[in-house]
Specification:
globular; 70% helix; 462 residues; 20 helices; mainly alpha
Length: 462
């Protein structure tokens, strides 16, 4: 009976995809307005499924490696919580205020537990099954949206939205486009596209899945995401040209550059240079400039700035809603980098961004190898650009997938190179090079061990 519970079990795969599908359907605006984030709880069924698998099979394989990933991911969230608690205590906030703030981010720990349970059951295939569940929900949402306008009207509206590159008047005047504008899932499709193109060499239908991800990415049409995707793809392509040491140096240098860039970005926002640039070049910010300008009075770019605590910005904008001082008719900052700085403070933000980018990158390099570190950095470069003008950092699916994919890529077996000849004596120089590379890949395959890789182990994205 133990053989039933494997990563290829149709029962477990079907149930997991159902849990993800049901949770993703909560992003349908009709359900979202009625139930809020409640449908996301369905995905917690994954924990029960993994628990049954563990108790029935007694399979502890990979638990040590997965627990290390869980500690890595959780430490970032716990760090945010502890930093916020210190700020709240210094500001003499009430216990109820502190508990409310902690609960706002604690769901991320559940998110981490769910993705770790998925990888425990399905290893590298967890990413594909998660994609199938989310993509299926996305298609259902599109079909439900098309029911309001008819297939012909839906196609016409989608073409108009794409050709106008998401013009505000097209979105405003189309019930269908508003219905399928599911932010979190659209951003996630960009991550999956990068994954299927570059980081799942053993998947037979990788390009089919990449095509589906791209279709749903375009259908959702988030303008900033196109620039983000281009940068993520460029980074992955660039790393393909480098050797192992070059890849390691590139990802570490990129991580450090991100830290410097984020402080520079906060500085130009606080001084108003960012909104001035967008205004001069007629870049539509949809009210973000008014939010940034308003929040600028509550922080300063200085080592003496200690922060306001997690969720301060959201609560601030909510307190203005319906009053004469209301900035815009939304309560989200639409800038996660700015939000984290305002809430964590100068040093808290530094600790967070060093931990998230520099420490995690080094951890992936030392524990998992340069190929997983490149995967981590490519998808995080993509997400970083969305953080600049949106709220994707703690979106449910976005935060889950950017953790899930490097884990899955770590567990993916090395792709075997097909050799026409097996006798080395009869091989030409190219065939000998392929043969030696295959032997090296077999020797240095790290799944499921977590140890520092050999520096001469090359990375193949093919």
């Amino acid at each position: 009976m133990k053989e039933l519970y494997t990563k290829n079990s149709k029962v477990f795969i079907g149930l997991y995809i159902f849990f993800i599908f049901g949770a993703a359907m909560g992003d349908w605006k009709v359900l979202n307005q009625a139930l809020g984030a409640l449908p996301k709880v369905i995905s917690a069924g994954t924990l029960g499924l993994a628990g049954i698998y563990l108790l029935w099979s007694g399979n502890f394989k990979n638990l040590k490696a997965i627990s290390r990933f869980a500690i890595l991911f959780s430490s970032i969230i716990i760090g945010i919580i502890l930093c916020s608690i210190i700020i709240w205590i210094m500001d003499l906030q009430s216990l109820s205020y502190i508990l409310k703030g902690v609960s706002k981010i604690s769901y991320q720990l559940l998110n981490i537990a769910i993705l770790c349970a998925a990888v425990y059951m399905f290893e590298e295939k967890a990413a594909k099954y998660t994609f199938i569940g989310i993509a299926s929900a996305n298609f259902v949402i599109i079909i439900l949206g098309a029911a309001t306008t008819g297939i012909g009207g839906a196609i016409q509206d989608m073409i108009a939205n794409i050709t106008s590159f998401g013009a505000n008047e097209v979105i405003t005047n189309s019930t269908f486009i508003r219905a399928i504008e599911i932010h979190d899932i659209t951003f996630v499709m960009g991550v999956f596209f990068i994954y299927f193109i570059f980081f799942c060499p053993g998947e037979k239908y990788r390009y089919v899945y990449a095509g589906i991800a791209m279709f749903l990415f375009i259908a959702g049409l988030k303008r900033i995401a196109f620039l983000s995707l281009a940068l993520g793809v460029f980074f992955a392509l660039f790393c393909m040209l480098l050797g192992p040491k070059g890849k390691a140096r590139t990802v570490m240098l990129t991580a450090v550059m991100i830290v410097v860039f984020c402080y520079f970005y906060i500085f130009i926002i606080q001084k108003g240079y960012f909104t001035q640039f967008c205004t001069e070049h007629e870049i539509e910010l949809n009210g973000r400039d008014r939010i940034y300008d308003y929040i600028s009075q509550f922080y300063e770019v200085s080592p003496s700035y200690r922060g306001k605590g997690y969720e301060f910005c959201v609560q601030l904008l909510k307190s203005l809603k319906g009053t004469a001082g209301q900035v815009v008719d939304i309560t989200a900052v639409h800038n996660d980098i700015l939000k984290m700085y305002v809430e964590m403070g100068f040093w808290g933000f530094l600790a967070w961004i060093l931990g998230y980018y520099v420490f995690q990158t080094h951890w992936y390099l030392s524990r998992c190898g340069e190929k997983v570190a490149v995967c981590f950095m490519a998808i995080n470069i993509y997400m970083l650009i969305t953080y600049m003008t949106d709220n994707t950092m703690f979106y449910y699916w976005s935060s889950m997938v950017i953790r899930l994919i490097p884990m899955c890529f770590f567990f993916a077996p090395v792709k075997e190179i097909t050799l026409r000849k097996t006798n080395v004596l009869t091989m030409n120089k190219y065939e000998k090079w392929l043969y030696k590379k295959q032997q090296k890949d077999r020797k240095n395959q790290r799944k499921p061990r977590m140890q520092a890789p050999s520096q001469d182990n090359d990375l193949s994205f093919s």
